[in-house]
TrEMBL record:
The lineage of its organism: Bacteria, Bacillati, Actinomycetota, Actinomycetes, Kitasatosporales. CDD domains: TM_PBP1_transp_AraH_like (cd06579). Keywords: Cell inner membrane, Cell membrane, Membrane, Sugar transport, Transmembrane, Transmembrane helix, Transport. Part of the binding-protein-dependent transport system for D-xylose. Probably responsible for the translocation of the substrate across the membrane. GO terms for cellular component: plasma membrane. It is a multi-pass membrane protein. It is found in: Cell membrane. The chain crosses the membrane at residues 49-69, 81-101, 108-125, 131-152, 159-178, 198-220, 241-259, 265-283, 310-332, 344-363, 370-388, 394-413. GO terms for molecular function: transmembrane transporter activity. InterPro entries: ABC_transp_permease. It comes from the Bacteria. This is Xylose transport system permease protein XylH.
Length: 424
């Protein structure tokens, strides 16, 4: 074979061999700020909105109500908002888990109510230690969640029907547990009373929590980027990690300063944030969390991948019921008592709305527990702002309903756009 033909064949082989694919995220980071802006625009066009709408909504809500009332951004009002979001927010975190499966749990308001009733009756009427009574109430809720999950996962009853029956049944049990008493006040200065009314008044507490949050984020982001680079994957450069950490530091320390201008750091906020962080870690960093997303993305595919679908479903309903019980205890602490109406009204609807408004999809497979925090901030900010204006509760319901509808429409449009862009 001639040298010319050999060279020609080599050239043809080179031309026919495709160039290795380059991760677009690497190109974005090489282009600097312009690359990030371009990537942001691409995500918006493809429907990958993330938390952008809810963050912009929060800024807009705060600006409007501050301009109207002049009181919305005061330290006292901000502190009150952090208290009001804890109970429903904890319930909303549990709802996020259920929504990730593409299901719904309508019983969680009743579960919160019956758990608070069990705790109050045991501690007040039967002299059981308050902490033990609260633990027993949460354990009872876990059993309730397992029961819901069993009928759904093993018997095949739709989750909507199972939890609708639970909404009615556990509400009846709540009334039966309370008996003729109707209302039981929390023991003064007791465990339940402190849940929503205790503040760390030392300024070091709020600033210390802010410092821990910022340091924790930096360490997690830095180590995560290093491990991805070691595996040959796209990773955030150190400059990006530092920029994100700086932005978080500004937000965290401004929040700490604001809370310290009032009563200090609320215990309720610490618990709520702790639950959000832990559950976010579970969903994003553990095999169990990946299984939850897999089941929500496609049951049959998850089953063929060897995932125990029934167990994942049962465990998710247990988690949602357990968090509902904890949320019910915080609601009882905020009101000062447990009664037959606790958990009724708009508690369930606000908790579901918060998860959806915060960015968790109703169609399953997409969402974060941070959605519960962001969504509750939106709802409670609207309610608080309208309260400052003296707007009636009926108007508040209509506005909250409109915001929920807008969030669902945005979710639907986003999914459709992502499918059109080949990302769905």
């Amino acid at each position: 074979m001639s040298k010319h033909s050999t060279t020609q064949k080599a050239a043809m082989t080179t031309e026919s061999t495709p160039a290795p694919a380059v991760d677009p995220r690497l190109l974005v980071r090489e282009q600097g700020l312009a690359g990030y802006l371009g990537e942001f625009r691409r995500k918006l066009r493809s429907g990958d909105l993330g938390s952008v709408p809810v963050v912009l909504g929060l800024v807009l809500i705060a600006a409007i109500f501050q301009g109207i009332t002049g009181k919305f951004l005061t330290a006292g009002n901000i502190s009150n908002i952090t208290l009001y979001i804890a109970g429903p927010g904890l319930i909303s975190v549990g709802i996020v888990f259920v929504l990730l499966l593409g299901e719904i749990d309508l019983s969680l308001g009743s579960v919160a109510g019956v758990s608070a009733a069990v705790s109050a009756v045991l501690s007040v009427q039967h002299g059981v230690n308050e902490v033990l009574a609260a633990v027993l109430a949460v354990l009872a809720a876990l059993v309730i969640g397992a029961l819901h999950g069993f009928f759904f996962a093993k018997i095949g009853v739709p989750a909507f029907v199972v939890t609708l029956a639970g909404l009615l049944g556990w509400s009846g049990l709540q009334g039966w547990v309370m008996g003729n008493t109707g209302t039981l006040n929390n023991p003064p200065n007791g465990f339940i009373a402190h849940l929503d009314n205790y503040f760390f008044d030392d300024v070091a507490a709020a600033y210390g929590l802010a410092a821990v949050a910022v340091a924790g984020y930096f360490v997690a982001a830095f180590l995560g980027a290093r491990s991805r680079r070691a595996a040959g994957l796209a990773a955030k450069p150190l400059s990006e990690v530092l920029l994100r950490t700086a932005l978080l530091a500004v937000l965290a320390f401004v929040a700490a300063y604001t809370l310290n201008q009032d009563r200090g750091l609320p215990l309720a906020l610490v618990v709520f944030l702790g639950v959000v962080v832990v559950t976010d870690f579970v969903l994003r960093r553990t095999s169990y969390g990946r299984k939850v997303f897999a089941v929500g993305g496609g049951v049959e595919a998850a089953r063929r991948a060897g995932i125990n679908v029934a167990w994942v479903r049962i465990s998710v309903f247990m988690i949602s019921a357990g968090l509902a019980a904890v949320g019910g205890l915080f609601i009882a602490s905020q009101s000062g008592f447990a009664d037959k109406q606790l958990g009724s009204g708009n508690v369930l609807m606000n908790s579901i709305a918060a998860a959806v408004i915060g960015g968790t999809s109703l169609f399953g497979g997409r969402g974060k527990t941070w959605s519960a925090l962001l969504g509750m901030l939106v709802i409670q900010s609207i309610v608080t702002g309208l309260d400052l204006q003296g707007i009636s509760q009926s108007i508040q319901y209509m506005i909250t309903g409109a915001v929920l509808l807008a969030a669902v429409v945005l979710d639907s449009v986003s999914r459709r756009t992502q499918k059109s862009a080949g990302r769905g």
